[in-house]
Amino acid sequence: MKRQLVMLVCCIQLLALLLSLCCCSMNTIITSNKQTETIEDCNYDEITDKVEIVFRDADESLKKYGYSDIYSIPNSLSKHIPYEKLAGKKGKVIELIKSRNGISSFFKILVENCEVVYAYTINNSEHDINGTYTLTEFEKANKMISSYIWINQNAWKVRKQELVTDNRNISFPLGHLEKVEVIGVYTKALGYTYGLKPFFLIVRKDSGEEGYVGYNNSFFFSFNPIDESWDAKIVESIKQQSLELGMTKEQIQLAWGLPDDKSRSVGSWGVHEQWIYNETYLNIENGVLTSYQD
What we know:
By secondary structure, this protein is of the alpha+beta class. It is built from six helices and 18 strands. Strands 3-2-6-5-4-1-7 form a seven-stranded antiparallel beta sheet. The longest helix is centred in the N-terminal third of the chain and has 31 residues, at 2-32. The N and C termini lie far apart (65 Å).
């Protein structure tokens, strides 16, 4: 009985300690969010060696969420920055701040009004800060206007790309390797596009429909990947994302994308490879598809 009482007292003391730490932490968070750090005379325009970003505008359905990964202090438990405070403003990524535990990292960003904010990052890339886009990528996208791209439906495994519009109830289908013309760039975040970032290309189909596709190099080819010398039957199979015996490895990847796994063996007969897509096994002999099991 005495032993149980001692254990109970220890548990109560531990719980009290945890509650105390939690309260202290919450007080720190609330206090730290009352005021954003500001650098007087920050000379924003004179900083030319840093990546410059723009805080992305958003439609009405997203504004209430603010910038979910951007904070007044480098702490993901603090309150994120509200939409109105940053929308449309520019910023320069000053430095990467890594936490002591090495798990979380933040970019320190100097906003053009000389305020400082911190953006949580997973891959430590300035080009992938949630809710922003870089001016460099925006300028590259603008240079694509009046050119053509070929849609890659293998890029997004969870769903097919669609040509979305300003009306969430209206979209148009896009074929694999369908050729569309780039006619503009659209930077506003839309709440019904499954988080596509950093912005959109405005494109036009040959049939005349216009809409948005995500600006991401994996979503499209900037050149026609189909070789004019290829057999018409194989070309049609690629566009339908189906297999055809006799396909080369390049043609298989155009049809189905990169395999989930693969193996390779070499012998006097040549080179045998097995590519695995989900539960389908492809047998490739000397670079040519000879059979598959599904």
